[in-house]
Amino acid sequence: MSKLLTTHNLISKVRVAVGDYFHQMEELSIHFIEEH
Questions:
Q1: Mean pLDDT, residues 11-24 taken together
Q2: Which residue from 2, 20, 24 is spatially nearest to 10, judged by alpha carbons?
Q3: Nearest-angstrom CA–CA distance, 30 and 7
Q4: Rounded to whole angstroms, how far apart are CA atoms 27 and 31?
Q5: How far apart (Å, rounded) are the C-alpha atoms in residues 21 and 4?
Q6: pLDDT level of residue 34 (50, 70, 90 thresholds)
Q7: Is 1 a residue whose pLDDT tops 70?
């Protein structure tokens, strides 16, 4: 049970990290397009 919970927490953290990464890439590309 606790191992399953740990796996769930890890997956949640990875999803948040990936979401933040794509959000940053999106903002960077928007700034890049606006500047050029």
A1: 97
A2: 2
A3: 34
A4: 6
A5: 26
A6: confident
A7: no
